[in-house]
Amino acid sequence: PVAIMAPTDTGYKPSDVAHVPSAASELQGLFRAAMRAALPKLTDEPVVVPTGNPKFGDYQLNNAMRIFAHLKGQEGAPKNPSALAAAVLDKLLETLPADGIIAVERALVKEKGGKEAEKVVSPAIAGPGFINIRVSRAWTARHIQAMLRDGIETWAPRVGYQRAVVDFSSPNVAKEMHVGHLRSTVIGDSLASTLEFCGVDVLRLNHVGDWGTQFGMLIQHLDDRREGGLAGGAAEEDVKDLQALYKAAKKRFDAEPEFKARAREAVTQLQSGNELFLQAWKRICEASRREFQAIYDRLGVRLIERGESSYNPLLRPLVEELCAMGIAEDSDGAKVVWVEGEKVPLMVQKSDGGFGYGTTDMAALRQRAHDERGDWLIYVVDEGQSGHFRLVFGAGRKAGILPQEKDAPPRVDFVGFGLVLGSDGKRIRTRDEGAAVRLVELLDEAKERSREAIVAHNRENEEKGRPFVTFTPKELDEAASIMGYGAVKYADLKNNRLTNYKFNFDEMLDLAGNTAVFLLYMHARIASIDSKAVARKREDGRATLGIDELKRSATLMLAHDKEAALGLHIVRFPDALESALADLKPNVIADYAFNLAGAYNSFYAECQVVGSEEEDSRRLLCEATAVVMRACLKLLGIQPLYRI
Ligand code: ARG
């Protein structure tokens, strides 16, 4: 039987993989050479972009106007952007290698005198200086075939950074991990995976909130609750239901001034190293960690925990240094750092001498830049904290932790995201009281609904005499997890991260929508074509080659328009990665994957695969589609399914 999950999914090892320039960078090189030849004084780089509309070719040089503006007034400068483009195009055509990436089309064109003459009609100049080109089908076919041979990793674009530190997920101890943390978890995981795919060494950090003032009330409450207090040894069961513990402690904290005072005192006790308090704190953290880990295991997310408490020893020396440097200043007994252009300062020490969220983030920034040698520091945190991070980054620049020049490493990025809304359009979140939407329950429901859908789908197929899949209970469970959790992730990742989105099970599990379910079915369907081809009895009695042999012996050809369109979309995969990384937006990859499924569907509707004359070539095209689809799914944190 065919495994339902990837049989050879061993992960990518980009570091030892050769890099193949993408179509866009190949074109960039050709345009650069043509521009240097046409305009020797020019130092600008050509900007070649994929076009959204085939009317404008497949790729387009789109910065002739800007270049023109730069050259204006200089000796020998072209007289307008179109003339500039014409000069570049002339050189391009002169130097174009035969059988290269740019397709050259000629046609009979009527000249002024009414005579007809053969002329190049593509590449062509359009509008005020755009140069539109078409990618040659033969080149596309060769490019894809090489990828099938050498692996999709060879298509990973080069990223100019060695070591990225991605801070994501970062829930708070004893408070429930809520959907906001889910967003951070799936977006951060996707960005980290994309960087890893591109050969960047990524440190995935979980900046867990394990050192807040909430511990004072939690510990004090534990102390009060049992005879003999903490000294009596708070048992495991005291921290079993952290939610309940938090709720009860918070209630007293808000209602009993006397308790509140003792809770404050408990914070001081904890921070000054009281052994009993430390033990209680550790127990609470461990219980919380178990809950978080269960979620990460389900979601298949890897993270290294480095909570706020781990920066404790660094805080006092850091603040002293900032004061000595004159960067932190006194403000009513507190120590603050002012950042140019900001209305409020970053607080690094409270008036009672305590340190807070901002101090910890300053210490973490330095640790990541200096000790970890990160040259790209990324923070995936809800948009509501953008102000906090502007202050942290600004203070970091002032203190010399970050460079003064904007483009010098380490680069820092705040990757914000919007809210998750319930179907009523209101913010969905866990509250201390009222209807709490627990993350675990969301995941459970997504999985259960997927299980039902998979079973119903196959039962219907069986009843209607169509091919159906029978699962062992274990396989069904795995498929339901992959589909359910994949659906939740995809529903998040397909949105521009800055927009709020509605959490809706029916929508995210829609087989016909822009969903993980749709993509997983597409992938399984593509994968099944190959088994169909192999299983089929051929008239000549010979066995059909397996896909691995086929990759070596058959030649991919893109003759039909739909084959060519699918092929073009496949070679644009690196463009999607580049643009996803440029804005740190995983939705670009989701869009790409959805459009890949669309291009595949159009191809499949018009081009017979199994039993056709083009069977071998088309099986290769199907395989390439499946390979790229799996890569997309992987970057979105979704495991592929081979049978559903
Ligand atoms: N624990 C914080 C929260 O739940 C997020 C931490 C983000 N990372 C950081 N370095 N501040 O809101």
UniProtKB/TrEMBL annotation:
Domain Arginyl tRNA synthetase N-terminal: 25-135
UniProt GO molecular function: arginine-tRNA ligase activity; ATP binding
InterPro entries linked: aa-tRNA-synth_I_CS (IPR001412), Arg-tRNA-ligase (IPR001278), Arg-tRNA-synth_N (IPR005148), Arg-tRNA-synth_N_sf (IPR036695), ArgRS_core (IPR035684), DALR_anticod-bd (IPR008909), Rossmann-like_a/b/a_fold (IPR014729), tRNAsynth_Ia_anticodon-bd (IPR009080)
SUPFAM superfamilies in alphabetical order: Anticodon-binding domain of a subclass of class I aminoacyl-tRNA synthetases, Arginyl-tRNA synthetase (ArgRS), N-terminal 'additional' domain, Nucleotidylyl transferase
Domain DALR anticodon binding: start-end pairs: 519-644
NCBIfam families: argS
HAMAP family tied to this protein: Arg_tRNA_synth
Protein name as annotated: arginine--tRNA ligase
Species, as recorded: Elliptochloris bilobata
